[in-house]
Design brief:
This protein has 387 residues and is of the alpha/beta class. The protein contains eleven helices and 16 strands.
């Protein structure tokens, strides 16, 4: 069976426009979540992690061209293109090769085009995910119809799984997997209606957590069957993955962690690893009471309570359809650099099962990482990567 390797990657969030910039800021313990007033998102102050428009336009002028700053691409499309361009820089992967497939993950796509003040600049069908993906792949000259994964907050993890299976099957030799979401009034008001948003930067698994923080972001990773294209000095492989659905509630996770437990067990079985061989867990960790509690139950049931675990959301917020990809890229960074990132905002256990939350950055061997994700509709995902 063909093996699947992680090639070049890119992360764009409030913390930076490259993977290295984001990792550096996380190592320094800096959060991109700030209390900001933006009447386009909500009438009052909102704590979120946003990509600044002036920095975005500066990067667009530098990498795409001045003429594209306002007219050709939507805000999200510009972020996607920048992220993909950065990941491709210095990489032999040809996006126009018929053996290269684009896979997109997003929960809402260009949904900000529903807002009246943006509507007049773009044709109406740009709000559809298929059209957004088509515009971006045409920019890169891809001859293939792109795949689009939109399955709530597990979209990014599922996109990586789908790409790995397409490569393993021999249908394609490489995949450009890219996930992104931005904030809009629609998204913010939806989470506000759940009373799920924290007034300050979120603190996953902490006893004093007050809800989640939303974040804007995009992550791109190139998966390939060619180990020689895995440009980093320590090649990271996709080892296994699985999804489940607990069908508990339209927006709430199961109360016993059964669905996520099953996903974790199936992913580890496919990867051929035991709980003792997992060195680090990048949890979904949204900082909502139900998610964190469910996740602690699932990790405990899977025999993973002693394993060091963190959540990246205290640094960059919940980036929705991008979260699975961004957090997997940062997990691959952990493997390549033998580092465990601390979980921002955590001081005291706030879930019923004891977890080994990482409270300080640590340098130690990291060979196998489990990434978990859960989302609305009862969906769960788990993937295992390693070297």
């Amino acid at each position: 069976m063909r093996r699947v390797y992680f090639g070049a990657d890119n992360v764009i969030t409030s913390l930076g426009f490259t993977t290295a910039e984001n990792a550096e800021q996380v190592l320094k313990g800096r959060t991109g979540i700030a209390l900001t007033t933006d009447e386009r998102l909500c009438p009052g102050p909102l704590a979120f992690s946003g990509i600044k428009d002036d920095l975005l336009d500066e990067k667009v002028r530098e990498f795409i061209g001045k003429s594209h700053c306002t007219s050709s691409f939507t805000r999200l499309e510009k972020i996607f293109i920048l992220s993909i361009l950065n990941a491709l820089t210095g990489n032999p992967i040809d996006p126009a090769n018929p053996r290269t497939i684009f896979i997109f993950s997003t929960t809402k796509g260009n949904i900000d085009l529903l807002e009246i003040y943006r509507r007049k600049f773009f044709e109406p069908d740009r709000v559809h995910l298929w059209r957004m993906a088509e515009v971006i792949t045409q920019f890169f000259g891809s001859p293939n119809k792109p795949f689009i994964i939109s399955n709530a907050c597990i979209s990014g993890s599922v996109a990586i799984m789908a790409a790995s299976r397409l490569i393993t099957s021999g249908r394609y030799d490489q995949a450009i997997v890219t996930g992104g979401d931005i904030l809009s009034e629609f998204i913010v008001s939806g989470f506000q209606s759940f009373q799920a948003l924290s007034p300050v930067a979120c603190s996953p698994f902490d006893a004093h957590r007050t809800g989640l923080s939303l974040g804007e972001g995009c992550g791109t990773v190139i998966l390939t069957a060619d180990a020689n294209i895995a440009v980093h000095h320590r090649a990271v492989e996709y080892l296994g993955g699985a999804t489940t659905n607990d069908a508990n509630h339209i927006s709430g996770p199961s109360r016993d962690g059964e669905g996520l437990t099953l996903a974790i067990s199936a992913a580890m079985k496919e990867a051929g690893v035991s709980s003792e061989e997992i060195d680090f867990i990048s949890a979904h960790g949204t900082a909502t009471p139900f998610n964190d509690e469910m996740e602690s139950l699932a990790l405990d049931r899977a025999g993973l309570s002693p394993v060091p675990v963190n959540s990246f959301k205290g640094y960059i917020g919940h980036t929705l359809g991008a979260a699975g990809i961004i957090e997997t890229i940062l997990s691959a960074f952990s493997i390549r650099n033998n580092i465990l990132f601390k979980s921002a905002g955590y001081t005291k256990n706030g879930v019923s099962r004891p977890l080994n939350i990482i409270t300080d950055n640590r340098y130690q061997p990291v060979r196998r990482v489990l990434k978990t994700a859960s989302g609305f509709g009862g969906c769960n995902a788990a993937i295992v990567i390693g070297n």
